[in-house]
Amino acid sequence: xxxxxxxxxxxxxxxxxxxxxxxxxxxxxxxxxxxxxxxxxxxxxxxxxxxxxxxxxxxxxxxxxxxxxxxxxxxxxxxxxxxxxxxxxxxxxxxxxxxxxxxxxxxxxxxxxxxxxxxxxxxxxxxxxxxxxxxxxxxxxxxxxxxxxxxxxxxxxxxxxxxxxxxxxxxxxxxxxxxxxxxxxxxxxxxxxxxxxxxxxxxxxxxxxxxxxxxxxxxxxxxxxxxxxxxxxxxxxxxxxxxxxxxxxxxxxxxxxxxxxxxxxxxxxxxxxxxxxxxxxxxxxxxxxxxxxxxxxxxxxxxxxxxxxxxxxxxxxxxxxxxxxxxxxxxxxxxxxxxxxxxxxxxxxxxxxxxxxxxxxxxxxxxxxxxxxxxxxxxxxxxxxxxxxxxxxxxxxxxxxxxxxxxxxxxxxxxxxxxxxxxxxxxxxxxxxxxxxxxxxxxxxxxxxxxxxxxxxxxxxxxxxxxxxxxxxxxxxxxxxxxxxxxxxxxxxxxxxxxxxxxxxxxxxxxxxxxxxxxxxxxxxxxxxxxxxxxxxxxxxxxxxxxxxxxxxxxxxxxxxxxxxxxxxxxxxxxxxxxxxxxxxxxxxxxxxxxxxxxxxxxxxxxxxxxxxxxxxxxxxxxxxxxxxxxxxxxxxxxxxxxxxxxxxxxxxxxxx
Amino acid sequence: xxxxxxxxxxxxxxxxxxxxxxxxxxxxxxxxxxxxxxxxxxxxxxxxxxxxxxxxxxxxxxxxxxxxxxxxxxxxxxxxxxxxxxxxxxxxxxxxxxxxxxxxxxxxxxxxxxxxxxxxxxxxxxxxxxxxxxxxxxxxxxxxxxxxxxxxxxxxxxxxxxxxxxxxxxxxxxxxxxxxxxxxxxxxxxxxxxxxxxxxxxxxxxxxxxxxxxxxxxxxxxxxxxxxxxxxxxxxxxxxxxxxxxxxxxxxxxxxxxxxxxxxxxxxxxxxxxxxxxxxxxxxxxxxxxxxxxxxxxxxxxxxxxxxxxxxxxxxxxxxxxxxxxxxxxxxxxxxxxxxxxxxxxxxxxxxxxxxxxxxxxxxxxxxxxxxxxxxxxxxxxxxxxxxxxxxxxxxxxxxxxxxxxxxxxxxxxxxxxxxxxxxxxxxxxxxxxxxxxxxxxxxxxxxxxxxxxxxxxxxxxxxxxxxxxxxxxxxxxxxxxxxxxxxxxxxxxxxxxxxxxxxxxxxxxxxxxxxxxxxxxxxxxxxxxxxxxxxxxxxxxxxxxxxxxxxxxxxxxxxxxxxxxxxxxxxxxxxxxxxxxxxxxxxxxxxxxxxxxxxxxxxxxxxxxxxxxxxxxxxxxxxxxxxxxxxxxxxxxxxxxxxxxxxxxxxxxxxx
Lengths: 657, 657
Prior knowledge:
The structure is a homodimer of 657-residue chains.
Chain A: E1 2-3, H1 12-18, H2 34-47, H3 49-60, H4 67-71, H5 73-97, H6 104-111, H7 114-146, H8 154-171, H9 173-203, H10 225-235, H11 244-247, H12 256-284, H13 295-304, H14 309-342, H15 360-376, H16 381-384, H17 390-411, E2 418-419, E3 426-427, H18 432-456, H19 458-490, E4 504-510, H20 515-527, E5 531-537, H21 540-554, E6 559-563, H22 570-583, E7 588-597, H23 601-605, H24 611-617, E8 624-632, E9 634-636, E10 639-641, H25 647-656
Parallel strand pairs in A: 4-5, 4-7, 5-6, 7-8
Antiparallel strand pairs in A: 2-3, 9-10
Helix pairs in contact in A: 2-9, 2-12, 2-14, 3-10, 5-10, 5-12, 5-18, 6-7, 6-17, 7-8, 7-14, 7-15, 7-17, 7-19, 8-14, 8-15, 9-12, 9-13, 9-14, 10-18, 13-14, 14-15, 17-18, 18-19, 22-24
């Protein structure tokens, strides 16, 4: 019989926050259009323009705030834009090759094996958590630039924002897409307006320079190559997030690859335009990196004037895109974690879909770790940046190297030949050599940048990620080994079936004689096996009283009393049961224990609840079965009645029939 | 059969921290001599001299720091000393009347009824928690007076001290007595030296005045009667702790009452001497109340000079007695909580004695609440004082009023007559009238002081205690009602015995078919009742696979598959079991569920652990029995083996016999 069940009941609060539960069959419908996809998956990449220029300037300013030094930001930005273009082209190839999702994890697993896949995955998962922390911190910094009085509450504000995004994501990706489309396009509007007006005023010579900035203090260092590379690697934060679309291809409407690739193209073009224009204008107006005011804030108030409505709109737009950028990680982290878990490298619970069809465990995990990071780093973007982006660049490198391996396999095919691959079919492509060179170039560049990151930012925080990723990989493999061990242990091939039934010996754990225990004895007798009762006596006086009660009320069966002068309960029970196992080498020892079940948790706390203690006492014993006999204590209008099946009730039952 | 068990095994850490477990028969031996008793029970009372003078001056200083204003401290101190003498005499009577422990709770219960007893108990429990918080905070203040650089870490230091005292007390009272005897006598030594040298220098005219004190800032108020009463009530903190001995009579060696009464006498005499001398000298050297330096520190450095070794010894002695004073509450709070719990007004768990025969739950409860107070109040003595002492004075009043009632009963006896009382015998005493007047005077004075407290400190924190005590009393009575209800419900008189056994229907909850589930089916079959299996299908594909496995591997019995499109597990199971209960109106429904039991908690977390979910699903259902069939997954040198009783193992078992 296969029956169906109704829509589950839900309390009003979770209904309001999370929406109605969705049945599994609606899974297919949770996809997004290109426009919404750009908003959902591009907010991370686009938002990084809000801090990438600033992070370049912060590092260069260590060597002084002269125009020549800070002017280096322009060639650095151009270099970063070229890198971005290469990675974009390379990733378009991946998107077409893997229409069912072409994240670094899948590409690596398909072409480079398990270890590379786990490394890529560990790096990405780490970076998604950092993305949430960095984006939310930068968004709050934007707000506190405009409203300096909120600076003291930035950690609390950041945590509030994380909580809000978490709830939105627990509702599901489609609705969150709609919510996030508006801010993304609002940001793009204000950004193009600011940059457009800025460029116009620059060309007409009416753009002034920024004034009244609190400059970051610090000792002046010489302008070394190391410092320039460090500025470059900090600016590469602009690239983070462009992998988001390749991870989330399955969330796009069909044709998935086409829609995803088009969205990726738009995204990169917009990103390069904004990033270059902003770095150029920032140099023209002589922006100075400051702890209390962001570069965008300085730019916008120089372009529009501080009191202008457009300054505030730009601030709001930037804050919104940053706060919403965190959402990209909420779309990708749970999906990637579920992939790992599905392969047995992370706890299985991460593959469960919640009431709204999203991976609730993954969303909660991300929220918890990101919140911890925000608290530890006190919501400081500059403190978080050194940890950031290494993971993404590591995954870029692995993913593109995987594509090179794949394209070389394709190169060995005959024209027109199609070979079944692990993930997708390998189809002959005459342009395989060009494509392999592109992917190889991408892998090489991102690999070099990653090494530059690790070296230049090592002492300021990158060491943590360099240590963390290998540790995570080891943990992933240990989890995998555990699941393999358990599967082996549970495999039906490895045991000989036991077709015989076994004798059962029932043992009743007593702690008093009252209506509940009488019920328990009735259960034990109904089971129909030989039975006896066991009492652990903490006080000899109570033991004597119990013995008398037993003789008077029960008057049958055997009651064993074990004295426990050290007032232990668990140990004597365990020892007694172990003796029983020795005496009955093939039997199941069936331990029956009572549980007084109260109507509220408060009431329950007023009772001993020894079930837990007893369960611990019997943990790990083979052939021991534990049955809990609940005895419900009701309040009926002030009076109380138990649930023993009395003779009278039984008669009623029979009469009713 | 009554058998004995060995000394329980113990891990090395708890052995080191807590010592070896003690058997119940050693309970009688945990008593203390007069000298140790003074250290254990008097440290609270004696230590209050470290802040009582200061708290008077802090309040008087609100009306200015002129000599005339601060000089009022001397008549106020004399008034407090007289009050102390009255209460001491009154409490000696109580100690003789109640040799088995004469705390306010017992005296009130014996003479004034349950409500008065609960009020007294609630007040005392509240005050014991405050004693720990106040004493530890004042002790840390003493240390930070000498070492101002530690001021920033005062909350952490206070929490550390609470943790230390908690561990010492979990070891048991006798050993903690020995530990605490040294600091108490060390404090008395340094204190008498300071006061002695100070008085000598005053008489010889060589005592100077204090210099270099950071004065508390605040607006000058007029010196009203209200302010003087407030100063008086703050100074009455000196009386807190003198009730400790009457609560702890049973901890004294025999003859208990005599030893306790002698100790009380010593304690009060010492207390009055120190308090009056200190207040007098503080006035002579023109002490100014300050947030960063205590009165004792000012006095000691004026007497000895700041660099003197005696200044540091006095500081250390005062800090130690304060930190150890908290120990008094650790002796009394758990005893009093156990009394409440024994009468059914607090959770029964508070009556359990731990491995070292102490009331571990009570000790932990005290530690948690005191730590919370220290954190909330930031370890500030002045912030805590307004909440303090109201409870003690309320209990003083109730206790002495109870003695008056008792003595009037004695007054109605014939000469030589002895009447059996609830707690102790009522014996004729011709001096009953004098004693009743003394107790009545004590009750009246402490009652008036309590009202002065409540009114003068109401807005600065006392309101909290005024609200808390009635709330606690209501909670106590609700707990009591709950225990009465349950006892009624469990009483054998209220049910008709069910002597018949009932049919049993077994229901196996499946989630897969592997070695563990086969074991589970074997258990169900061994039980010997009609059985069927239930599978909740989250995905239709998995359901089909399970059905095929069932047919191939099990090949018998009935498998019911319920589809759950909303991916719920608990609700469908509950509904199914409820249907079964309807179909079988007299039968027990025996639910068998498997549990994969791992060797470590980390491994366990990698599995679903649905036992909890299922147990919740079936909570509160009558006639439903839940049996958990554990399946132990072992790691044997890298490989894994389950614990299914295979045919081969069974044969081995038989052969061995």
